[in-house]
Specification:
Elements (H helix, E strand, L loop, with lengths): L6 H17 L20 H8 L3 H8 L8 H10 L4 H11 L16 H5 L8 E4 L5 E5 H6 L12 H7 L1 H6 L3 H16 L6 H13 L1 H7 L10 E7 L3 E12 L2 E11 L6 H7 L5 E3 L2
Antiparallel strand pairs: 1-2, 1-5, 2-6, 3-4, 4-5
Length: 284
């Protein structure tokens, strides 16, 4: 276990936990109330008991003492304090710890607005979840990514790049791009390597693609950054874009990627791709 990183973080954590404790009602936990109870909310020892923690240890947290705090103990504390998603993330950030429950994905029940926003984008756009499955995309993206978004079934970007022969023909400088994608995926999933879905995907790719196995075993780590993306489209010819990726507020596992025309280097094929009538389609 590591101690909390700085005195300011310890102070902020102490004030945060104290405020949360004081807003809780004893009756919510079946605790007696009466005229002798002068402490607002729960007492320190009550919180400690509910968490199964030492009362001394909990008191030291509220006193901003330099104590060892394990992720498991913080998770129990978050449960008793009934923290929302943002509050829980803030608690672990102040403590400088990784939330043991962060392997849970929040993308199973997405609001329709988060998915349908892709329709409004006037360039190829798609939304990826933690495993890089496309959860939503627009018609321009479907037209661009021949063999990926225009096919039935699960639309996984990594499976398309490494397992579909059409990807090698579509993506210019395929090996360079594929090596970077593997490094970007390693960086993106580093906090969730115990996620069974992720492990299953990595194992399948490692087993079925020699190129993925080679790139993955290089242990490259890169951010998913923007930059030029070029394609040899079977209908529209050579296409050049600039890739831009955003994280969705409230849904850290979701990434929205757009491919924007590079107007400084726009060619005829790029213009043709931009004139496609708007249409939306979500993953099937």
């Amino acid at each position: 276990m590591l101690t909390i990183r700085s005195s300011e973080q310890r102070r902020q954590l102490a004030e945060f936990v104290r405020a949360l404790r004081q807003r809780l009602s004893p009756t919510e936990f079946g605790l007696a109330t009466g005229s002798r109870r002068r402490t607002p909310g729960l007492r320190r020892e009550e919180v400690a008991q509910l968490c199964g923690l030492s009362a001394t240890w909990y008191t030291w947290i509220e006193q901003a003492r330099d104590v060892s705090v394990s992720p498991t103990a913080l998770a129990r504390l978050a449960g008793v304090l009934r923290l929302g998603r943002a509050e829980r993330a803030y608690l672990f950030e102040l403590a400088g710890k990784r939330d043991p429950d962060q392997n849970r994905s929040d993308t199973d029940h997405l609001p329709s607005a988060a998915l349908s926003c892709v329709e409004t984008i006037q360039s190829p756009a798609y939304m990826l979840d933690r495993c890089w499955n496309a959860r939503s995309w627009n018609a321009r993206a479907e037209r661009l990514f021949v063999g990926w978004l225009d096919q039935p079934g699960e639309a996984n970007l990594l499976q398309f790049i490494f397992l579909q022969p059409s990807a090698r023909a579509l993506i210019c400088e395929w090996e360079q791009r594929a090596r970077r994608v593997a490094a970007e995926f390693r960086a993106a999933c580093s906090a969730h390597l115990n996620d069974p879905s992720l492990r299953k995907l990595i194992e399948r790719l490692h087993r079925e693609s020699r190129d993925f196995a080679r790139f993955w075993d290089e242990h490259g780590v890169l951010d998913r950054e923007g930059g030029e993306r070029t394609f040899n489209h079977p209908t529209d010819g050579f296409l050049r874009y600039q890739q831009v990726t955003f994280a969705l507020a409230g849904y850290p596992d979701l990434k929205l990627t757009m491919l924007v025309r590079d107007r400084s280097k726009a060619g005829p094929g790029t213009n043709r791709g931009a004139r496609l009538p708007p249409r939306s389609r979500q993953s099937r």
